[in-house]
Design brief:
Number of strands: 0
Radius of gyration: 17 Å
Order of helices and strands: HHHHH
Shape: globular
Helix content: 55-70%
Strand content: under 5%
Distance between the termini: 21 Å
Structural class: mainly alpha
């Protein structure tokens, strides 16, 4: 159990470092690796058969990207530290992190601050928190 938690912590911290690198890089690193284009951001709403789709789907896909990214990272972190007495501090850190990283987009070339992304980031982190609270409640850990 201890080794699996230590491995989980290593994975969590690696994900945080990758999040920082991709968020603070001028352009889209993921877009570069997927499409070969730093200017194109992958979207969860991309059409796999490459047919024209309305622009609204790309907007929604971008929000889904932000939501899922912060949901998964926050969920992993909160699950790993669910037994820790500083459990709520990790939530506060995740919420602050989600806003501050988006604010950096004001200053990074080829990136743009979007208030909807902030809301998607915060929503993902809060949803993960509620999922962990429900998990802890049903496992009598509250």
């Amino acid at each position: 159990m201890v080794k699996s938690i230590n491995l989980s912590k290593v994975i969590f911290y690696i994900l945080l470092i990758l999040l920082l690198i991709t968020y603070l890089f001028p352009g889209s690193l993921v877009g570069y690796f997927v499409f070969g284009d730093l200017g194109r951001h992958p979207s969860l709403a991309d059409n796999p058969i490459y047919q024209p789709i309305p622009i609204n789907f790309y907007f929604i896909g971008g929000l889904l990207n932000h939501f899922m990214l912060f949901f998964l990272i926050t969920l992993i972190g909160l699950y790993i530290y669910s037994e820790n007495r500083n459990f709520k501090n990790l939530l506060y850190i995740a919420l602050t992190f989600s806003v501050v990283l988006e604010l950096f987009h004001f200053f990074i070339p080829n990136r743009a601050f979007e208030i909807y992304d902030v809301f998607a980031n915060l929503s993902g982190a809060m949803f993960a928190y509620f999922m962990i609270i429900i998990y802890r409640f049903y496992n009598n850990k509250i």
